[in-house]
């Protein structure tokens, strides 16, 4: 059973009567595989450990103790990399890794602008909380590590944030910067001038508060110290979690590649078997009634190669490895040697990234979002092939932040919070609006349209007997009359919207806050909105709430 504890409510600000409360709801995942995993059904065909078992952590520690790790080399590299953050807490965590009894709680995400969607923050908090809990429970050093996907090149997924205004729902604000399509986040330079202007636009969409100027200056300070997307992300995260000892592992940094060389070569050695292991596990998953999400291909080598700043997927055919776009080819031995000489040219894909993590880090647990739980379940045979047992996969905390004014509107409109989180309020708004239309109005209007059209058709028929060339004019006249009836309908509808506008806007505000764009709050909104509105003490309190890993949806009431 996962270790948890409870503490009293916290004050948002010292001396304030406003409290931050933590409550829970039971909300089911829409992914059947994920829900079965969370419910504790037998998933031993997909995972090596049962996270619901009371002795799961002792079993994992026993397994880790039998495996060698390059702890000193990893700690040396991380210590050097983290000098730029000037954080004693980070360095203290790194030193813990040298202890042969130590372990890590790991999770990762892309390097989104302004830290990306809220679920990135929630994942980091999950990592820190579980590491802290297990260090206390197991009486060994347990460090939090966040794997920054710096080698990822899908910049379209990270180059924007959503903002909102009083009269609009979420609006995507994209950084207006051009870049090479296949350049990794860790290698893509930020245009300082354009990014600073973009940040101003994002903050202009927020309501100005006593916290705005300080927050904006701090964000721009981090920007000025950054060269790339990954730099900017890491500096903001390091600032937000400066006291927690969070270790940042940038997968796109050339320095880490030297430690990964041996694993790259093992992936190469077992390349054919690895592709088959993934394919076989996916087939088994389908037969069990689940849906794989990894797009696997037996011709993929499951590794990327960087050429002149861009990443290309390595493919294989008849024992030859190649990049078709570049007309590059290697034999197995040539690629093996190339990995030894230039490991910084190679990077992982969705299949090999978890394997590389397992190779590098003595991982006690992996914190996973719903999609990750699904695709890690596709990799059990791949882990086994490489001589690993898949680390316990722990669902990250799912959190909804409930602002006081939104909670008040939920109460006024008699809307259950669970309903708003699971389904939003768009359908309730539509239902309410329909109820305001006079009961007979719609049927009377439809009857009027039908009867008038019938009378007009009779008139058209008689007119055509006089002159058949009048057909276009008559049809235009008929359409004009129907348009007038539509105008009447629209006028009535508009008057209802004006009359009920206050109530209808309440439904919209609830939807935009809790389930924007029909998605969970944490997938759309960014932490900067809350930092701007509630200040730094909000975040200090938020990240120290007594969250529990009992697979309940966490509600943070502000």
TrEMBL record:
Asked if the record carries the keyword Flavoprotein, the reply is no
Upper taxonomic lineage? Bacteria, Bacillati, Bacillota, Bacilli, Bacillales
Q: Write the Enzyme Commission number(s) for this entry.
A: 6.-.-.-
Q: Which residues form the signal peptide?
A: none
Organism equals: Bacillus velezensis
Keyword Coiled coil (UniProt): yes
HAMAP family for this protein? BshC
Query: Which top-level enzyme class is recorded in the Swiss-Prot or TrEMBL entry?
Result: ligase
Enumerate the NCBIfam families for this protein: thiol_BshC
Q: What does this protein do?
A: Involved in bacillithiol (BSH) biosynthesis. May catalyze the last step of the pathway, the addition of cysteine to glucosamine malate (GlcN-Mal) to generate BSH.
Judging by the UniProt lineage, the source's domain of life is Bacteria
Q: Which UniProt keywords apply?
A: Coiled coil, Ligase
Q: Could you tell me which InterPro entries the record lists for this protein?
A: Bacillithiol_biosynth_BshC (IPR011199), CC_BshC (IPR055399), Rossmann-like_BshC (IPR055398)
Q: Name a Pfam family for this protein.
A: Rossmann-like_BshC
Q: Which GO terms describe its molecular function?
A: ligase activity
Q: Which residues form the Bacillithiol biosynthesis BshC N-terminal Rossmann-like domain?
A: 20-397
Name it. Answer: Putative cysteine ligase BshC
The family line of this record is: Belongs to the BshC family.
The Bacillithiol biosynthesis BshC C-terminal coiled-coil domain, residue ranges: 399-558
């Amino acid at each position: 059973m996962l270790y948890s504890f409870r503490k009293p409510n916290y004050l948002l600000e010292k001396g304030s009567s406003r409290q931050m409360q933590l409550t829970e709801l039971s909300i089911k995942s829409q992914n059947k595989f994920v829900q079965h995993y969370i419910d504790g059904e037998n998933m031993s065909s997909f995972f090596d450990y049962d996270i619901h078992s009371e002795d799961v952590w002792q079993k994992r520690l026993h397994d880790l103790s039998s495996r060698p790790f390059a702890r000193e080399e990893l700690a040396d590299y991380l210590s050097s990399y983290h000098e730029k953050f000037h954080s004693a807490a980070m360095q203290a965590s790194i030193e813990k890794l040298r202890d042969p009894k130590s372990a890590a709680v790991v999770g990762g995400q892309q390097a989104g602008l302004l830290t990306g969607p809220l679920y990135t923050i929630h994942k980091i908090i999950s990592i820190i909380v579980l590491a802290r809990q297990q260090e206390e429970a197991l009486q060994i050093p347990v460090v939090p590590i966040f794997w920054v996907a710096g080698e990822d090149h899908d910049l379209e997924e990270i180059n924007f944030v959503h903002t909102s205004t009083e009269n609009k729902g979420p609006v995507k604000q994209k950084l207006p910067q051009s870049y090479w399509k296949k350049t990794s986040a860790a290698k893509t330079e930020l245009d300082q001038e354009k990014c600073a202007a973009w940040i101003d636009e994002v903050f202009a969409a927020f309501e100005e508060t006593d916290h705005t100027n300080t927050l904006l200056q701090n964000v721009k300070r981090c920007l000025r110290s950054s060269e790339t997307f990954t730099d900017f992300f890491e500096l903001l995260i390091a600032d937000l979690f400066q006291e927690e000892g969070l270790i940042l592992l940038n997968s796109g940094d050339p320095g880490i590649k030297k430690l990964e060389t041996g694993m790259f070569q093992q992936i190469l050695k077992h390349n054919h078997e690895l592709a088959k292991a993934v394919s076989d596990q996916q087939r088994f998953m389908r037969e069990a009634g689940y849906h794989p999400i990894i797009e696997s291909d037996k011709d993929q080598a499951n590794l990327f190669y960087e050429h002149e700043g861009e990443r290309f997927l390595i493919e294989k055919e008849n024992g030859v490895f190649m990049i078709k776009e570049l007309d590059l080819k290697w034999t197995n031995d040539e690629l093996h040697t190339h990995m030894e000489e230039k490991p910084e040219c190679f990077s992982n894909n969705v299949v090999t990234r978890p394997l590389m993590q397992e190779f590098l880090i003595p991982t006690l647990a992996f914190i996973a979002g719903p999609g990750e739980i699904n695709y890690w379940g596709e990799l059990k045979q791949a882990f086994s092939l490489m001589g690993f047992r898949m680390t316990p996969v722990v669902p990250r905390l799912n959190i909804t932040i409930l602002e006081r004014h939104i909670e008040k509107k939920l109460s006024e409109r008699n809307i259950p919070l669970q309903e708003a989180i699971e389904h939003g309020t768009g359908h309730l708004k539509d239902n309410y609006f329909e109820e305001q239309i006079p009961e007979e109005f719609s049927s009377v209007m439809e009857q009027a349209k039908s009867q008038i059209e019938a009378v007009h058709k009779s008139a058209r028929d008689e007119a055509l007997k006089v002159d058949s060339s009048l057909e276009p004019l008559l049809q235009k006249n008929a359409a004009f009359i129907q348009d007038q009836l539509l105008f009447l309908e629209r006028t009535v509808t508009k008057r209802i919207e004006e009359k009920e506008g206050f109530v209808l806007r309440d439904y919209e505000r609830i939807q935009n806050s809790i389930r924007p764009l029909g998605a969970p709050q944490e997938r759309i909104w960014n932490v900067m909105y809350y930092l701007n509105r509630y200040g730094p003490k909000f975040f200090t309190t938020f990240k120290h709430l007594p969250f529990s890993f009992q697979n309940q949806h966490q509600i943070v009431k502000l």
